[in-house]
């Protein structure tokens, strides 16, 4: 079951751009892993293509507060 959620927190970790080839479409793509934290827990978010390229990695250096709306929760590589 897929569901959309909203999250807000402090950017803790922001990976470099990770290139990969989509197995289904054989199209080159990119992704970026972002971990945000709050006072109780953390969540890893995968940004794809345009969002991955547009995300400012300095937000992690500055521990900026960010909000993500309508994030789709799904399993990717056997993890949520």
Describe, in plain words, how this protein is organized in 3D.
The chain has one domain: OB fold (Dihydrolipoamide Acetyltransferase, E2P), CATH 2.40.50. The longest helix has 6 residues, at 49-54. By secondary structure, the protein is mostly beta strands. The radius of gyration is 13 Å and the shape is globular. Strands 1, 2, 3, 4 and 5 form a 5-stranded antiparallel sheet that branches. The protein has helices at 49-54, 58-61; strands spanning 3-14, 18-21, 28-37, 42-48, 65-73.
Helix content: 10-25%
**Nearest-integer average pLDDT:** 89
Largest sheet: 5 strands, antiparallel
Q: Would you identify the CATH architecture? A: Beta Barrel
Q: How are the SSEs placed, and which strands pair?
A:
Elements: E1 3-14, E2 18-21, E3 28-37, E4 42-48, H1 49-54, H2 58-61, E5 65-73
Antiparallel strand pairs: 1-3, 1-5, 2-3, 3-4
Q: What are the key terms here?
A:
single chain; mainly beta; OB fold (Dihydrolipoamide Acetyltransferase, E2P); 2 helices; 5 strands; about 10% helix; globular
Concise description?
The protein is mostly beta strands. The protein has 2 helices and 5 strands; from the N terminus they run ββββααβ. Helix content is 12%, strand content 52%.
């Amino acid at each position: 079951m897929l569901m959309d959620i909203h999250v807000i927190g402090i950017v803790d970790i922001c990976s470099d751009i990770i290139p990969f080839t989509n197995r289904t479409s054989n199209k080159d793509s990119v992704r970026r892993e972002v971990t945000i934290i709050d006072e109780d827990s953390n969540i890893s978010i995968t940004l794809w293509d345009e969002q991955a390229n547009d995300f400012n990695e300095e937000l992690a250096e500055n521990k900026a507060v960010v909000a993500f709306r309508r994030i789709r929760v799904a399993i990717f590589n056997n993890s949520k």
